[in-house]
Amino acid sequence: MLPDRAAAPLGPAQVHELLTTAGVRADRRLAESVTTLTGGLPALVERAVATLAGGDRPEALDAWMRREIEALDPRIQAVLCAGPGLDVELLGRLVGGDGAVALAAARETGLVDRDGRLVPLAQRAVPVERRIEVRRRLAELQLERGGPVLPLARSLLGTGVSSPAVFEAAAGEALPHDAALAAQLYAAAGRAAPVPWATAAALAGDLDTALRLADRVVATGPPAERPAAARVAAAALAHRGQLGHSAELYRWSGAPDLATVGLIGTGRLPPVPPEEERAPTLLASAAALMADGVRESVTGGPTAALAALVRAADLLQPTGRTVLLPDSPAALAALVALHAGEWAVAASVLDRAEAAGLCGGLLATRHRLLRAWVLLVRGDFPGVRQVLGQPPREPRDLLFWVAVELGLARRDGDLAAVRATWAGAREAVLRHPVDLFTLLPLGEFAVCAARLGDHDRMAPHLTEAYALLDRLGGPALWAAPLRWSALQAAIIAEQPDAAREHAAALAAVATPGYRQVLATAAECWVEVLAGTVDAAKVERAARGLYGAGLRWDGTRLAGQAAARTADRAAMASLLDCARTLQGRPARVPAPDVDGLSDRERQVASLVVAGLTYKQIADRLYISPKTIEHHMARMRRRLGCESRADLLARLRHLEAAQLPRRGA
């Protein structure tokens, strides 16, 4: 006898009372378990209580439920197995009759809850294979009538059911919202759709699967599918840092615009193609704009390049989640903006791309890392740490991630962190060939290499970068930031000739705006290195850097000039400038040198005198590492935010002590 559907379900307290009355030693947990298992249906509860009171094993209750369900009309059984949320038309196709009547009969059994789900006891009684078979049949019927199959197909994942057409259709439904789920569904479809499967895998970030599938189709697949497979492989290879190979695949597959992006990125400027009619799709239009924007960035100016790339990004927003590209137009626009000093434009275009999910999860990490770079150059170090995240897997993303980590450590003056990260940087450079779109991290690596005395390790990569720029005609937009980083490296390595060379290169490409600011600051820095400190000129250059968004660089220029001048008034003025650019109050009273230990005063005097850490260590019979520890402690005690600030403060304190020593 099946339960009376009209009877109100019982709660755990009532079930506990029934168990106790029947002589069953029941605690709250057992009462709740019986309530859940039976859905609180009185007839089922009564049967469960009788089973437990009679000393029968719980399996006896399952056996009784199976007999009761097997006695039902097969059509009612099918509806019970189908699950909730299905329309009566589909149920009618399933049972071969009136779906509404079958649904009402299934509800009358009282074995379903208010949401239409079988109570757990009934679920256990229906063989899993039976439920799976019903769901498979429902999915196929839904596909036949052209309805959505994703919910049904999703429930069949991992069951071993073979229904390629259903899984393929469901994957297409899932792709715009969940590329990883789409890839799972395509995998369940088997070899039915290798190119869409590879596309979904790539968009989900599974480049190994994408390359394996695409390469197989390119090598042995049907000729009609090979170009599409080649484009998938080309996109995946670009994300792996193989931009040259990617460009060749795009060219072979008949995607000249995307090939142009890779060719220019590897230093090969193709001729402007003749005007030809393109397919009037959003993707084709966006690809053409990407090619135009990248070409304009090396042959024209940043304004036209940015306009084309931003328009390409806007075009892709409606369908961008399912578009597989070697790079997103938003990322390329951000790179152009970063090289042009347009930090606000870079941040804005990246924010829009992230909000739209442009190019799926594959490019989400790239967008986030470029946003971290914007925050880094603007001096928002807490913001960088907030968005940086964990080390990514793919070479291109890893290159930027390591460079941002190094940039943070260097700007914090944390030499130990720079050293700890440097091994990862060396590996990242080896894994990713030099291309136009990775010059920013390469510049950061050059500066850190100079800081660690490892300049020779980066020299071949820098030479390759300059050669790439030369092949493109020396585009000022891309060359200037690299030259600025190389200038910083030369300053740190105390290579005045190299510093003058890079300053001259910056002057050669200077135009009003960002590049002029860099050129002016470079000229000023070279003069400071040579011992000529014009405080007013330095302050103008430092404030120019600050105004261009390079707060940390401006602060460093003012601080280094203060550390090198013998004019105490100029020193104080430049220190005030450095503090102002840091957002700190000027003219903060300095702690007295007596706050330092005797050993720290010795180290301070020798540092101010210009000795290297090794020379100081030899003179004091201690290790260079100990010198570093002394410098770090002095920096904390004197409240200095950078090494340059510390040197300037030590020189100021040392000068203040001279009259006292003479007395």
Describe this structure in words.
- Among the domains are: 1-72 and 109-126, no CATH class; 594-662, Winged helix-like DNA-binding domain superfamily/Winged helix DNA-binding domain (Arc Repressor Mutant, subunit A).
- The protein contains 37 helices and no strands.
- α1 (12-21) packs across α2 and α6 (88-95) packs across α9.
- The longest helix has 20 residues, at 643-662.
- The protein is an all-alpha fold.
- Helix content is 71%, strand content 0%.
- It is elongated and about 100 Å long.
In short:
The protein is 71% helix and 0% strand.
Which features would summarize this protein structure in a list?
663 residues; mainly alpha; 37 helices; Arc Repressor Mutant, subunit A; 71% helix; elongated
Give the amount of beta strand, in percent: under 5%
- Terminal Cα span: 112 Å
Q: Main β-sheet, in a few words? A: none
**Structural class, judged by helices and strands?**
mainly alpha
Count of extended strands: 0
Average pLDDT taken over every residue: 86
